[in-house]
Specification:
This protein is of the alpha+beta class and about 475 residues long. Helices cover about 35% and strands about 25% of the residues. The chain folds into two domains: about 240 residues, Glutamine Phosphoribosylpyrophosphate, subunit 1, domain 1, CATH 3.60.20.10; about 180 residues, Rossmann fold (3-Layer(aba) Sandwich), CATH 3.40.50.
Length: about 475
């Protein structure tokens, strides 16, 4: 349901969680995955270990639905280590076979693996592995890394993991669980966040966002660095640098995906979004009576714009939280008006007023256009649309489910053409320079360790000719 609206939104691939040496490992992983539910709603899984063997459960759907009490009882029994995963598919498609973590059995032992990101050379590696006899059970790029680990001739788990991840190109934050250790791995660019924390009783925790550490009562220690493998075992924590770091954190983590109460590379997501609003006003001021944000991520940006401009900020759009993927398929008439199922207007805040509406981004523009129609139908005198993201002109290959280049509104239209299409009185985007300044990462250089490829078309990594076709096929 609401497929048209969902296709016009940015989607994060997934979130990962891991905990070592805690008798409540399964329960805390369940809590951690709930805190990361915003990063993926298609499927969830937990793999646990007692130090001798691994077992677990995976299911399609939300975390709360995937793990009934009878399943949690089985996961809690004698386990003290665990990893978990929530998924939204970008590569591989949505099917049970692709739900992670994957549990790998072989004569050499067990291990489980879960992944946040997207590998741009997955198809080439997969074909090579198939030629060597590998049989794949899924279409996920994560399984490619699992096979690489098992094909390694290295002696130790750490050496096998290092050899495997050194062959892949793209974005990855892995959590890997063996009988004896928990591993956290981040690609050389650090595209996706991964944080390390510790509970009061000394258990170590890794999670895609610090908000998950907060939920399980863990104190943040540090972020896993770009190009780093962290091994957590009975002897403590050991860090290995397997690749030279070239930081390029995804801009959309700060703008859209991460929870506002998360901290990424010492930057508060909440503060970054407010600064985006301030910068957006500086870039494109306009006379108006009220500012409204498109919930949820647009709301903080609107707050920052209001602080800078002095214009009142109101909750003029209310999100219906209970419209989800399982809702009955709409008729064509309902499909044409689907945005009304998701958002409703507080009419008395809008009627007769000059309105600035702030959203996190404009992808295809279809939802934005319908939001504008809602406001005009509610009696808005003027509608001025502001995007907290610069124009998205290129697809992402690092774990965000964006449209193809041809479907991106900003890729094929001028600013005036976009304004006319959306039927707004004015249209403006945050500039690339301003979003970099607003995030304010503590890195040197023009991009300050930030990936802006979807805004510029300049990708940090090598791309492969058949990659997009493979992703579309899946």
């Amino acid at each position: 349901m609401l497929k048209e609206l969902e296709s016009d939104s940015l989607r994060e691939e997934c979130g990962v969680f891991g905990i070592y040496n805690n008798n409540d490992a399964a329960t805390l992983t369940y809590f951690g995955l709930n805190a990361l539910q915003h990063r993926g709603q298609e499927g969830a899984g937990i793999i646990v270990s007692d130090g001798k063997k691994l077992w677990g459960h995976r299911a399609l759907g939300l975390v709360a639905d995937a793990f009934p009490e009878r399943v949690m009882e089985q996961l809690r029994f004698n386990s003290n280590n665990a990893i978990g995963h929530v998924r939204y598919s970008t590569a591989g498609g949505n099917s049970f076979a692709n739900v992670q973590p994957f549990l790998i059995h072989s004569n050499e032992g067990y291990f489980a693996i879960a992944h946040n990101g997207n590998l741009v050379n997955a198809q080439q590696l997969r074909l090579s592995l198939e030629n060597k006899g590998s049989i794949f059970q899924s279409t996920s790029d994560t399984e490619v890394v699992a096979h690489l680990i098992r094909h390694s001739k290295a002696k130790t788990d750490l050496e096998q993991i290092t050899e495997a991840v050194s062959q892949v190109v793209g974005a990855f934050s892995f959590v890997i669980l063996t009988e004896k250790a928990l591993y956290a791995v981040v690609d050389a660019y650090g595209f996706r966040p991964l944080s390390l924390g510790q509970t009061d009783n000394g258990s170590y925790v890794v999670a895609s966002e610090t908000c998950a550490l907060d939920v399980v009562g863990a104190i943040f220690i540090r972020d896993i660095k770009a190009g780093e493998i962290v091994e957590i075992s009975s002897v403590g924590i050991v860090s290995y640098q397997f690749a030279k770091p070239t930081p390029a954190k995804c801009s959309m983590e700060y703008l859209y995906f991460a929870q506002p109460n998360s901290i990424i590379d010492d930057v508060s997501v909440y503060n970054a979004r407010r600064r985006m609003g301030e910068k957006l006003w500086d870039d494109a001021p306009v006379d108006a009576d009220v500012i409204i944000g498109v919930p949820e991520s647009g709301s903080l940006v609107a707050m920052g714009m209001g602080r800078r401009s002095g214009i009142p900020v109101e909750r003029g759009l209310i999100k219906n939280r209970y419209i989800g993927r399982s809702f009955i398929q709409p008729t064509q008439e309902l499909r044409d008006n689907a945005v009304r199922l998701k958002l409703s207007v507080v009419k008395h805040l809008i009627e007769g007023k000059r309105v600035i509406v702030v959203d996190d981004s404009i992808v295809r523009g279809t939802t934005s256009k319908k939001i504008v129609k809602l406001l005009r139908d509610a009696g808005a005198k003027e509608v001025h649309f502001r995007s907290a993201a610069p124009p998205i002109i290129s697809p992402c290959f690092y774990g965000i489910n964006t449209s193809t280049k041809e479907e991106l509104l900003a890729s094929g239209k001028t600013l005036e053409e976009m304004r006319e299409y959306m039927n707004v009185d004015s249209l403006a985007f945050l500039s690339v320079e301003s979003i970099i300044e607003a995030v304010s990462r503590n890195y040197e250089g023009k991009l300050r360790g930030q990936c802006v490829a979807c805004f510029t078309g300049n990708y940090p990594t090598e791309l492969f000719d058949d990659m997009l076709a493979f992703q579309e096929k899946c």
